[in-house]
Specification:
heterodimer; A: mainly alpha
Chain lengths: 255, 107
């Protein structure tokens, strides 16, 4: 009986809701009211095909999550490797590291877009603000890095050198990451711990960057900077892992 | 007149009942059904339940969580909570108006 009733629903609907719907139908004896209600539900599902297209919508969400999650993991790793390599490179030999860092920034840009898009339905305004600010910062820092890599001794925007533009972009990205962390905590879609770590490490990077300028012990300042930057990158990677783990929760993969 | 229909046609009322049920925490389909029935004293059929759930999910007012033993819990999204609050406030002011008129009427 239950199998027959289920068969009246369109296939995409059954793929999305079939199993849980069957569990509901099996939870109690079906009376005439229930049977009539299910029949009407089947007619409704066939008359409202867009509900069946929910599967495609979920597929879109899943793609967004994967892009965002992978962007966060790979992007943060490359960004940190590029930054660490570049800071230890001899003068004039840091172009490769800058390019690695640029690729990482592109990954982080994808992370901002994918993860914000996914959590925007819970905290729309905050999520889009948390996307816009770091995204602009990342693009600006990309321009700065390109300037440092290819025209290192020239001013690329007004009187600003590539390094100056990169610092401005990085600062904006860090401020945006704090906002992104807050949005993620509020949306409760991804790991809150990773979101708290992201916001806290972004604050720490800013404080260390300003606090250690002209420090008496440059090597200690470098170690401290490396630790907070690594924590920032690790937080992004943790958010990425959390996003990829979340995938199957919402994902409804067509049979 | 209130406009509690969420643009959900004949599924407006069951949708509102589902949102209220989910406002105390995530529930799977059967738990929603029994909760609504206990709260209103009226049956909520499984066909109506899932037609409304599909619409609410499509509009981003609820979201599905990971299934547990074939039962998939649903929870309110932030948008869903806001919409529910607006709908209930609207209904409350309409009810207050109705009660006021009844009280002020010829009786």
């Amino acid at each position: 009986m239950i199998g027959l009733l289920l068969a009246l629903y369109p296939a995409p609907w059954r793929r999305r809701y079939g199993e849980e719907f069957r569990a509901v139908l099996e939870s109690r004896p079906l009376g005439p009211f229930d049977v009539a209600d299910v029949l009407l539900g089947a007619v409704d599902a066939r008359l409202a095909p867009r509900l069946a297209e929910g599967v495609a919508e979920h597929g879109g969400h899943l793609a967004m999550l994967r892009i965002g999650g992978l962007g966060a993991i790979i992007g943060a790793a490359l960004w940190f490797i590029g930054l660490a390599g570049g800071s230890n490179a001899e003068d004039g030999s840091d172009t490769v590291w800058l390019v690695v860092s640029m690729l990482g920034s592109v990954g982080l840009l994808l992370a901002f877009a994918g993860l914000s898009g996914f959590q925007a339905h819970r905290e729309p305004r905050l999520a889009w603000a948390a996307f816009g600010i770091p995204a602009i910062g990342t693009v600006v820092s990309l321009v700065g890095m390109a300037g440092m890599a290819f025209v290192p001794d020239e001013q690329i925007v007004g009187t600003w050198s590539g390094w100056g533009v990169w610092v401005l972009g990085l600062l904006t990205t860090l401020i945006g990451s704090i906002l992104f962390g807050v949005a993620t905590i509020r949306a409760a879609v991804f790991s809150r711990r990773a979101a708290i770590a992201l916001a806290a490490s972004a604050v720490a990077v800013i404080l260390v960057a300003f606090g250690t300028t002209g420090a008496a012990d440059p090597s200690a300042a470098r170690i401290l900077a490396a630790v907070v930057v690594a924590a920032f990158a690790a937080s992004w990677m943790a958010l990425g892992v959390s996003a990829l783990r979340r995938g199957p929760i919402r994902a409804v993969v067509p049979a | 007149m209130p406009e509690p229909n969420l643009e959900l046609g004949r599924f407006a009322e069951p949708s509102l009942l589902i949102l209220v049920s989910l406002s105390e925490g995530p529930k799977h389909g059967y738990a929603i059904m029994t909760d609504v029935e206990a709260g209103t004293g009226r049956p909520l059929g499984p066909g109506t339940l899932y037609a409304a759930l599909a619409r609410l999910e499509e509009r981003g007012l609820i979201e599905a969580l990971e299934p547990v033993d074939r039962r998939r819990p649903y929870r309110l999204t932030g948008v869903g909570a806001t919409v529910l609050k607006d709908q209930l406030a609207h209904l409350e002011s309409f009810a207050r108006l109705g009660l006021l008129r009844l009280g002020a009427g010829p009786g």
